[in-house]
Amino acid sequence: MKNSIKYFLSLFMVTFFMACGDDEPISISAQQAAAKALAMVSGQVTSTELDATGPEPEWSVDIITDAGSKIEIEFDQATGDLMQIEGNEGPFTYEVDPGLGLIVFSQAKENALGEVEFGEISNWELDKDDSGQWIYEFVIVNDGLEQEIKIDAATGSVI
Questions:
Q1: Helix or strand or coil: residue 127?
Q2: Are 120 and 140 in contact (CB under 8 A)?
Q3: Are strands 82-89 and 43-51 parallel, antiparallel or unpaired?
Q4: How far, in Å, CA of 105 to CA of 56, rounded?
Q5: Nearest 5°: phi and psi at 2?
Q6: Residues 6 or more apart in contact with residue 46 via CB below 8 angstroms
Q7: What is the CA radius of gyration of the chain?
């Protein structure tokens, strides 16, 4: 009788823990996402959050650069692949190296600013377009007017 009770109790516990466990393990941790982000830009991680609202969960890593700028870098949780980089607050005097054979931020910034006579960057992002091509998008402001400049992140050419 004792063995039967132990058996059913063990079976219940295994079934319970299997039902409560995650179907898919986390492929990269918050610490790994933060380390990947800091390999791209120098600064301090202020937060690392898992965003599971979209079709694929993503780690969002917020960094304050040594100059006090704010950058957000997103990685696919399952693969660790770079999904997006955003710079929403300057000064934009830092360097970002996204790897992947893409040009660095400073080169993309120089190419974008070369397309306008005057202006300052208000924000930028590096993201894939609908065809899967990596694109830097800069918003440049001059006398209150915004202009968007797109740079091919593989070649550096203006789109």
A1: strand
A2: yes
A3: unpaired
A4: 26
A5: -65, -40
A6: 62, 63, 64
A7: 22
Q: What is the pLDDT of residues 52-86, one digit of tens each?
A: 988 889 999 999 999 899 999 999 999 999 999 99
Token code pair at residue 129? 């377009």
Residue 8 DSSP class: H
pLDDT at residue 27, rounded to an integer: 87
**Other Cβ atoms within 10 Å of 58 Cβ, number:** 21
pLDDT for 119-150, tens place per residue? 999 999 999 999 999 999 999 999 889 999 99
Query: Cα–Cα distance between 108 and 156 in angstroms, integer?
Result: 6
Say how far apart CA 35 and CA 60 lie, in whole Å: 12
Q: Which domains does the chain have, with CATH numbers?
A: 26-152 (3.10.450.40)
Spell out where 2-155 has E strands. Answer: 43-51, 58-65, 70-76, 82-89, 120-128, 134-142, 145-152
Q: Is the peptide bond before 98 cis (omega within 30 degrees of 0)?
A: no
| Cα 71 from Cα 124, distance rounded (Å) | 10
With contact defined as beta carbons under 8 Å apart, do 125 and 86 qualify? yes
